[in-house]
TrEMBL record:
It comes from the Eukaryota. This is Required for respiratory growth protein 9, mitochondrial. Belongs to the RRG9 family. One of its GO terms (cellular component) is nucleus. It holds the Pfam family Neugrin. Coiled coil: none annotated. InterPro entries: NGRN/Rrg9. Required for respiratory activity and maintenance and expression of the mitochondrial genome. It comes from Dacryopinax primogenitus (strain DJM 731).
Length: 71
């Protein structure tokens, strides 16, 4: 875990701030595609389709955060 954290700190010294961001609806669609068929909708294919980095796709798929209903 500490090695992984150190490698991320080396790759992203200022922290994670992707240059291209996608909407919440696009994130949900990305998760749905990957959930339906992980072989066909792999991380590199989803990154190319949504025009974001593979690291961003991995973070979206791993994330479980949901916005609260207060808005």
């Amino acid at each position: 875990w500490t090695e992984h954290r150190a490698s991320l700190k080396e790759r992203f010294p200022e922290g994670w701030n992707p240059p291209r961001k996608i909407s919440r609806e696009a994130m949900n669609a990305l998760r749905l595609f990957h959930q339906q068929d992980p072989e066909q909708f792999s991380v590199p294919m989803l990154a190319a389709k949504f025009l974001i980095s593979p690291e961003a796709v991995r973070r979206i798929l791993r994330s479980r955060w949901q916005p609260t209903g207060e808005r």
